[in-house]
Design a protein that fits this description.
Elements (H helix, E strand, L loop, with lengths): L16 H23 L6 E3 L2 H13 L4 E8 L14 E12 L5 E5 L1 E4 L2 E4 L1 E2 L3 E3 L14 E3 L5 E3 L1
Length: 157
């Protein structure tokens, strides 16, 4: 009998507080401040899902043969009427994926599509709780960054 050993597909790693603080500060300085200026209001800094949301999505993913998860960066349309407070803000959409080996032997992670009500649709989860606008006590909960805006002065975010 021949057995094939399954290779681990794990790619992530745990990081520490210093790393998280550094990359959040960098994000605020390099992306968030510009997004905020462009859309005319504070852009979102985080997207929160409950453990129940994530566990339910992962259970459904496994039922459809998915073996991974992509987080796509996205922005709601400026006229988003379903949740007007999200209009123009960035967020994440989680998409179920299945690993496949392409013709060149490289592993690619393809988005999973399912049939729902007779129609093929991507298996995805969205509508996280965004901060801003829903931050509890405010965005300062996420740390402080001082941003040098050149001739426009300094900004503390």
């Amino acid at each position: 009998m021949i057995t094939k050993e399954k290779k681990s597909a794990k790619v992530g790693k745990y990081v520490n507080t210093e790393f998280v603080d550094t990359v959040l500060r960098e994000y605020k300085k390099e992306r968030w401040v510009h997004n905020t200026e462009r859309i005319g209001k504070e852009d979102s800094l985080s997207a929160w899902y409950s453990v129940e949301d994530v566990e339910d999505f992962i259970t459904n993913m496994k039922e459809y043969g998915a073996d991974g998860l992509k987080f796509y960066f996205m922005a709601y349309p400026t006229d988003f009427s379903e949740k007007p407070e999200y209009a123009g803000r960035q967020s994440l959409v989680m998409v179920a994926t299945k690993s496949k080996v392409n013709k060149m032997g490289a592993t690619v992670n393809k988005d999973v599509y399912i049939t729902k009500n007779g129609t093929s649709t991507i298996m995805a989860l969205n509508m996280a709780s965004l901060c801003p606008p829903f931050c509890g006590t405010g965005i300062m909960d996420l740390g402080i960054a001082v941003i040098d805006k050149g001739d426009k002065g300094l900004e503390i975010v």
